[in-house]
Amino acid sequence: MSKVEQTLSIIKPDAVERNLIENIKSIFTKNNLVIKENKKIHITKEEAAEFYKVHQSKPFYDNLCLYLSSGPIVVMVLEGINAVSLNRELMGATDPKNAEENTIRKLYGISIDKNSVHGSDSIENAKKEINFFFKD
Ligand code: UDP
Ligand code: MG
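^ thats the input. predicted complex w/ uridine-5'-diphosphate below
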């Protein structure tokens, strides 16, 4: 079934720092995802901890929160048919070493932690994550 959905995308500090914002956005727009909301922000470690709280029991949690708050990020709402799964496909595997050719993480990711982008993993989480950054 094809359905218009929204998902949350984040361009992480490693990619913002390397001036990859436009390269990454063009991958979304070339693949029929429309950028409905977009802002560049710098969040605190506490905000990162709240955003990533599903991972609070993981050994990488503290580093992950430090990292996401280490520099500016770009948060976006992407909209399109099957946006949640399409964005995950365009991103590639969490570890850039395992990512498919031409995915964002294969092209630009440095390591499993500095993997350039975040994307919601379900429609339910997309709603929560969009609300986290774009409360109306
Ligand atoms: N992460 C990490 N080490 C790991 C697994 C994950 O640093 O062993 C980081 C990585 O930046 C990843 C984020 O934690 O993007 C969230 O992990 P998740 O499993 O949700 O991966 P994603 O959904 O981002 O592919
Ligand atoms: Mg995830």
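Residues 55, 60, 64, 94, 112-113, 115, 118, 121 surround uridine-5'-diphosphate (ligand 1) (CB under 6 Å).
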